[in-house]
Amino acid sequence: MMDGIKNRIDALTKELNEHNYSYYVLSEPSISDYEFDQLLKELEELEIEHPELAHKNSPTKRVGGDITKRFETVTHRFPMLSLSNSYSKEEIADFEARVRKLVEGDIEFICELKYDGCAIGLTYENGELLRAVTRGDGTKGEDVTTNIRTINTIPLYLHGNYPKDFEIRGEVFLSLDRFRALNEKREEDGEPAYMNPRNTASGTLKLQDSAVVAERGLDCYLYSLHGKELPFSTHYEALSAAGSWGFKVPKEELRYIERTNSIEGIMEFIDYWDVERHKLPFEIDGIVIKVNSYYKQEELGYTAKSPRWAIAYKFKAEQLSTRLESITYQVGRTGAITPVANLSPILLAGTTVKRASLHNADQIEKLDLRVGDSVFVEKGGEIIPKVVGVDLSLRPEGAAITKYAELCPDCSTTLVRKEGEALHYCPNEYGCPTQITGKMEHFISRRAMDIDGIGSETVVQLYQQGLIQDIADIYAIKKEDLLPLERMAEKSADNLIKGVEASKQIPFERVLFALGIRYVGETVAKKLARHFGSIDNLCLAKFDELVEVAEIGNRIAESLIDYFSVERNRLLIERLKEFGLQLEVSEDESLSRSDKLKGKIIVVSGVFESLSRDELKQSIESNGGKVGSSVSGKTDYLLAGDKVGPSKLAKAEKLGVQLISEEEFLSMIG
Ligand code: IVH
């Protein structure tokens, strides 16, 4: 009996890993999503019943959930060296000539992309992932295996004819799409945007909660193989073989990797990517040129820090200079102040740039930016370009040192900046109009209370008319208050009242997010709601209890303590309770939870019969799935109702995303 179960677990683990490889590495799905789900579900159930038979590299680990409290330090078996960098083609020509002088015979070079992410060393034993270690100081790194297991393009088991024991190295990165989506979310949550995909990728690898890592959607390209007595004589051969074992290696047809015998070939590769890199879905910061033959690599040897058989050519970022006309300040709903550079318009990487982000006061001070300066503007992974430097030789005489804003641009309150924080804040939380209406706009927004029939303009109008002062007042609005408002017809007023009423069913985790507590974004709100179960428990939680929850750091804990220490906030919550909002996790919610949609991304579009769009989204999440906002290659299903969005439909058809009806969806979750 046990043997039968063990065999089934082994077979499912193997089969699911194969399907995963076909889907993510080859982009050729080998099974329908529904069938995949059924198999995964079967495996999950067997693993819950027989945890002792579960594999440490089970495909169920892809969605994360395991927590690492402390990352162990591990000594690298082979030191992780770096490459010598060059910024000019002359240096590349020197490298090529040097190599030719030092070794005899024909030399083949391999040109590769220099992925801009975070280096990782993956050890495999008997075809199974054993350990994943970051670069660290090159001698010792950190064991981040649990987080690495969530990266779909990294195989947990290998196939084909792999060596018994080897290490493979590569670069973990965040695609530009993922990076932008993450920053959009952060901005909405009142958190400072991440600076670039590279830092975000390395930060993500160090997160304690692997479920959050899984959500971020990291990716990985592999670039070198290490081991004793590997059966290859060239780097190219080794990488191709690694591809056949299941790793994501650069594709020759996309020109991500190229073989050449000549300096002209190398230069052509550099020129091609200097232009084309802007079209890549991820960031690269250069090109790597390597001697292909392992034997010749040995002959060339190493300097103290880097191999003599390879060199990196680093691109100069696309920069232009223009005049800084003025610096203005914006205040967000959490009171955070963002300085903005207003520029004399220029055309940069295909778009006209008039404004650039300056991040914070330190940035301005570090660059010593002054109005009238000629500044260098650069476009990175972000949509908004940034100011990266000043051409001091062009500084106009008498240009005044920039004095950072002292007063809020909206309510003129003196700004504050807490020790250790990057941003200035307007402390007039309950009096600054932009913050008040910003909080209301956040409260009613789609991802928060999703109140139909009320938009940002109506909120501002209601506030200006003195009809609402805080978010609780929204629940006290009466139809007769609304009718005298401009552009408010009977029907719109009815809709608004109906929308407000319906929002009382929104589950606790979203109400918590909707409150707009600084640093409490969607993910944090979910974690807190699940951990504490109710707003009352959360309100009573001590600092130590808060930071015990994975991913809740000092900053978030302090912000929560601050929030609940304000009497006004506690009164607001009491009022919301009286109005009947969900301020605890409902029994229903805990009962209707399942993992049936684990790992599935579902986009919801159209009008539905038995459930509202919101309820559908909620049930996707409470059954372990994720709600996607737009149809992409990663979407598993388009849950389509009546009047489904035509562009979503067309995209789903083009990408072969399966359409499901409300009925089918309901039967999927049982
Ligand atoms: S080969 C001896 N190939 O660049 C070093 N590295 O300074 C061998 N990198 O930390 C590295 N793309 O993380 C190699 N195609 C590529 C690469 C690459 C990015 C990173 C790597 C390393 C740094 C070298």
How many distinct folded domains? Answer: 6
CATH superfamily name of the largest domain?
A: DNA ligase/mRNA capping enzyme
Number of helices, counting only DSSP H or I runs of 4 residues or more = 25
Radius of gyration in whole Å, from Cα? 28 Å
Overall residue-averaged pLDDT value: 91
Distance between the termini: 29 Å
User: Which shape, going by the Cα principal axes?
Assistant: globular
Unreliable runs, pLDDT <50, ≥5 residues? none
Q: In CATH terms, what is the fold-level topology of the largest domain? A: D-amino Acid Aminotransferase, Chain A, domain 1
The strand count comes to 20
Numbering strands along the chain, what is their spatial order in the largest sheet?
A: 2-11-10-3-9
- Beta content comes to 15-25%
- Structural category is alpha+beta
CATH architecture of the largest domain: 2-Layer Sandwich
Major sheet, described briefly?
A: 5 strands, mixed
**CATH class wording of the largest domain:** Alpha Beta
